[in-house]
Design brief:
Layout (H helix, E strand, L loop, with lengths): L2 E3 L8 H13 L6 H10 L1 H11 L10 E4 L8 E4 L2 E2 L1 H5 L8 E7 L2 E7 H17 L7 E5 L4 H12 L3 E5 L5 H8 L6 E5 L1 E4 L2 E4 L1 H10 L5 E5 L21 E2 L3 E6 L9 E5 H15 L7 E4 L6 H7 L7 E6 L9 H9 L3 E5 H10 L14 E5 L5 H10 L4 E4 L1 E3 L4 E5 L6 E2 L5 E2 L5 E4 L5 E2 L3 E6 L9 E2 L6 H7 L7 E10 L3 E7 L4 E3 L2 E3 L1 H8 L5 E10 L4 E9 L5 H14 L8 E4 L13 H8 L4 H4 L11 H7 L4
Parallel strand pairs: 5-17, 7-8, 7-9, 9-12, 16-17, 16-18, 18-19, 19-20, 34-35
Antiparallel strand pairs: 1-23, 2-3, 4-13, 5-6, 10-11, 14-15, 15-28, 21-22, 22-24, 25-26, 25-27, 27-29, 29-30, 31-32, 33-34
Helix pairs in contact: 2-3, 5-6, 15-16
Length: 634
Amino acid sequence: MEKIWDPKNYNSSNLFQFEIFLKEKYNLSFLNYNELHEWSIMNLDSFWKSISEFYKIKFDKPYQFIINKKTPFYKTKWFEKSKLSYAAHILRHAKNNETAIVYKSESKNIVEISWNSLLEKVKEIRDNLLEYNIKKGDVVVGYLLNHPDTIASFIAVNSLGAVWSCCSPDFGVESIVNRFGQLKPSLLLAHQKYSYNGKKFDQEDKINQLQRFLPSLKKTILFDSSFDNWNLNSNYWIDYEFESVNFDHPLWVLFSSGTTGKPKAITHSTGGILLEQYKSLSLHQNIVSGDRFFWNTTTGWMMWNYAIGSFLCGAVLCLYDGSANFPDIGVQWRFAKESKINHFGNGSPLFIASMKQDIDDVNDKDLKFIKTIGATGSPLSVEAFKWLQKKLPKAQIISLSGGTDVCSAFIGGCSKLPVYAGFLQCNMLGASIQAWDENGKNIKGETGELVITEPMPSMPIYFWGDHNFKKYHNSYFVKNPGVWTHGDWIYIDDLKGVLMQGRSDATLNRNGIRIGTSEIYSALDSVSEIKDSLIIDLNTDTSSKLILFVESENKLNQNLKNKINEVIKNKCSPRHTPNLIFSISQVPYTISGKKMEIPIKKILLGQNIDDVVSKGAMRNPECIDDFLKLKVNI
């Protein structure tokens, strides 16, 4: 796989400045990034201390020690006895009459929100919270759009030391109750109406149901998603006193996808996320003060929480509320042009769809401000890497892999390293990533299970309500005791970086030869007739069938099937040509953009659909009917 980008202006990067800091303060110097990374994982106390010093973390109460490492990792203690405020660090870069947020929705023109206007809205919401007696440790939940209302609400909640959790309005009521019901929230914030894909939705009935099914709620605050109640021309400046909390005080609760069972209530610490976001967004994404940062997300996906961290770097946060495909696939690219976005992040499917349609909106003339292209949610194919780089030759493509579990990435970008098509550039600082074989041996040059061999401060402090850590332990520490097993299948190359191969529980095993599902998807990206695909290894004790489902532009005839088989045979392996190929209307996705390989496999193996899939946690639940109809032919 070829090199498509070389480092440019490394000496002006945040990572370079960090290396200068380490040299001047600790007399540390490194020949290359690998040496720096090795130091960061072998000296966790020194590394995370240096992050806290480099970013001038304000500890309202000093720490007694950096790390008390234990196994399993959830017993590890970080920056013990210290106190701080996340919101206080977010507002460090707030400046009078300067832009804080750029917002656009499907139905509205671009709106720029100044820090004055945002802080005035924060005060309004904060005053309501105080009136309703919300205090440190209380849980406030949101059923909210990707809107400035939501940013203001989060800052208000966090400023009081309360715990935040949020889902987007496309979640069904049952899915919301399965999540928020675990938290026993004191207050609900909700948008009454929204638009998506050109359609308008009224939320009144769903909000009323939530109020009935969440008996712990004391109050509900409603928003209408307009700016009628915003003072967009505010000249007031409001200073806040923030509630200081322990380093390990819960910041927010995120949830696993919940497509195959009750969602896990993943709880992150205030200090752990603060340190991780400075490191990941500043050192690895290279965001500098004044940059405009965008990541297409809803409030129900961890990337919303990740994007908030761009404020820590002094960025202007750009929000888009609505479908990335309406009225066409170019709408968010045009938003990038109009808003002069510097860091454009999206799910890999959007980049692949843009490539397949070869849209005119992606060009260096209109998007000359873009410094980085961020891709996550699923592996970005080699073809998409090459297409994007050709269209935007100056941009650095940063493909990320991490998860809701750590609300960050542990494999991502580096301004000091080249980019090879299909590969993620590096293991990120402080993240001790290895590929292990079935015997628990560290391997390179072949595919293995992704494990994390040292703790990270952004690992969950606990799952809410999991008092004995049983769910937490079973999620990460059973398969390989003593290390975190993440569930991904990876290939580490010392020169090129890391190749993501898909979920390890969805790998394709034919006669002892295992490959990741992403290899199949990447190969099929070269077939112009195919819009999307899903492959399932329907293996039992007595048989194995590879079933390929395709969403295609044209009718799935024998010629197209032959073409598909030939591509997989030549680009992947003759052993992994599918036994059966079927046409479907859509590939099923979770709301957070993950292909639902395992739930579909369980359905095809005969499990009850209600035990396997929570449709309220899906982006397109109607497509499940395709698989129920096809089941009789498999």
